[in-house]
Design brief:
By secondary structure, the protein is mainly β. The chain contains no helices and ten strands. It has an eight-stranded antiparallel β-sheet with strand order 8-5-4-3-2-1-10-9, with no helix packed on it. A two-stranded antiparallel sheet has the order 6-7. It starts with 5 loop residues before the first strand and ends in an 8-residue tail after the last strand.
């Protein structure tokens, strides 16, 4: 099992605001959701202690992204490339350049798979 596998809270900041998303990294797959109802899916692989992959999502009609982009109509798939260390540092801010503008993210690992969360 890879060091990255687990459930994370991602704290996101863009030009127009802030957000929080939960992500699951497991078996090369990424899944996530935020409080506004956006869902995220993607894939990754670990090479030389780096997580390389991509995440996609869709913006709904009448919404505005934290990057500042507005959507009168719903968007198609928005693909965001990922490049992170395999061991994500919760104190580090990571820059992501998305097709709708840049954003910064901090990832906090809540639990690793196989951990006994009751301890």
């Amino acid at each position: 099992m890879s060091e990255v596998e687990g459930i994370y809270t991602a704290y996101l900041t863009g030009a127009a605001g802030q957000g929080m998303t939960m992500f699951v990294f497991r078996d090369g797959k990424i899944a996530g959701a935020d409080i506004a109802g956006l869902t995220f899916s993607g894939n990754y692989e670990v090479k030389d202690s780096q997580l390389i992959g991509e995440v996609s999502f869709r913006m709904p009609a009448g919404s505005q992204s934290i990057t500042g982009a507005s959507f009168e109509q719903g968007s198609g798939n928005i693909m965001v490339p990922l490049s992170l260390p395999e061991k994500i540092d919760p104190n580090e801010t990571y820059l992501f350049v998305t097709p709708i503008g840049p954003l910064n993210a901090k990832f906090v690992k809540n639990v690793s798979f196989g951990e006994n969360v009751a301890d």
